[in-house]
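hi! just following up on the protien thing from before. the input was this:
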Amino acid sequence: MTDTGYDVVIVGLGPTGLTLANLLGRRGTSVLVLEREPDFYGMARAVYTDDEGLRIFQTAGAADELAADMNADSVVQWVRGDGRILAQFQRTDRPLGWPIVNFLYQPYLENTLERALDRYPHVTVLRGREVLDFDQDADGVTVEHARCHGTGYGKNPPDTDRQTAESVRARFLIGCDGGRSVVRTALGIDMSGTSFPERWLVVDLKAREGANPFAHLPYFDFVCDPALPIVSCPQPGGHHRFEFMLTDSQTKEDMESPDTVRRHISRFVDPDRVEVVRNLVYTFNAVVADRWRDGRVLIAGDAAHMTPQFIGQGMNSGVRDADNLSWKLTAILEHGADHRILDTYETERRPHAKAMIDLSVLNKHLVSLGNPFLAAVRDIGLATAVRLPVVGGWIRAARMKPTPRFRRGAYLGLPRRGWRGNEGTLAPQPMARTHDGRAIRFDEALGLGFSLLGYGVDPRAELSADELAALRAVGTRFVMAFPRGGRPQGHPGEWNREDENVADIEDHTGALMRWLAKGGARHGSVTLLRPDRFVFGTVEQGRAGELVAALRTQLFAVGGGPAEPPVTEPDVPPEDSPIRESAYSGGSGPRNPLGAAADRSPRASQRTRPESVRRNDMDSAHAPDGAGVLLGSEESR
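and the predicted 3d structure came back as:
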């Protein structure tokens, strides 16, 4: 039996798959999620998300509920074996509208994201379904899947009943199926990197009822003890995680024994007041897939890159992948954008993901020094650095973390204007004030699609009717931003507030205007923001039409439909490849004003969601976030 009618099939229901399904579902895309394991794993791997991650969850409509179950604004510190502090990272500002440091309990997060999918009748989730094979052609992808009794999350080979095989057709297939990705393996894509030999014992604890055994462990600690490097991580809901580095002489069996676990945790807590939820020995690597796209098939999350757990960015990298992919898939499926915009998925995301891996590896080396002399040098160096005026502030603010800023020439948008230009960078999210005095987050004014922001001006004012129609066709919201006290007064009808695609805000904190000015924007300028809040481009007053022309060139094959994507060729065409102007053979949807035929399946509103069992994707051997498989090529494709 073949089911036809999905826009996207997602393989894997871990954090990346859940985020992607929510983002696509909220944008009206019809989605099928196939998960191999029939039962929810229920154990934690990821322990941390940042303000970038929460902002993406905000776009997915779930951030407030998720944040309510998180430990926010905690101090992160590097301490000696005796507990003396070497350095601290502490920030409580909100540049992106959310806390920068958030510790979480992964089952809470996944359950919340899974419940959120119930809002979308056009999103179907099937647990206990193993992908057997897939094949792509000019019009889409055929995916064969069958009932699976699971693998015990990596403990056993898949127990699959091939007699129950079914096929489904979709426009795109996205592999979010973890480090052992079936999708990546079927495409023959290798992962490049170097393995680390160190083994770590991870112990997840839960406070017994009525007990408060973790009150004296309020912060996230990297215990830089050359005799026994340790990571101590607070989590919400009475949970806590410890990780202990093993010596070469210790065996996995000895370290996982109850007596060993009790001895290690006794250094920090009363073992009789806690329950050991899980303990296991793991090794980790850091790898990046050699390619992230083959025609209509793409990979994301751990399937594309795996990050050691030492900065807690493994899950967050996958969430960023989902954000980047979701709006580009929507642009193709809903608005007829050229398939080649998907090439920018890897060129934009690979350098940032790899930079996170590099930082994680650096911190791993810093924490796990076993040589007492080198450890003493580290301690003196850190203690000295934090006392220096500039360097100390840089450490305390964690400025070493890679910024959300795309490489020049590798992103969808206008070229960056000088070093300080905002093009290809993530816009901030300050609080803003609406015309009726309500305080909102900036993104609430922007909507889910593109947004055209006028600095003290109506961004529509200098656009022609055709240009306005073109922007509306891709779901653009028009936003006027006034400085504090700068809202026009005494001019009736000057601003139309009855159009749902029009908004005006007052930057009462000044943060938005400072950011615009820092990037070279002046009063009267117009900025186009992508759906993921990265800047497409900024132009001075009188040149807004140039933004429309550039968007038309980069999103669409002007004068024709999207060029057909290659199936087996490398995922990124040569830089001088022109966009072909032949009509897309699979486009059955209406043509939009920019001249492209939409690649559409039957609309999401026409689908219903069957009853199904669900699960999360935790197939990388039950290891904590980042554990699994090292460094990929720095070259962006």
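The two ends are 38 Å apart (CA to CA).
Residues 558-598, 600-637 have pLDDT under 50 and may be disordered.
cheers
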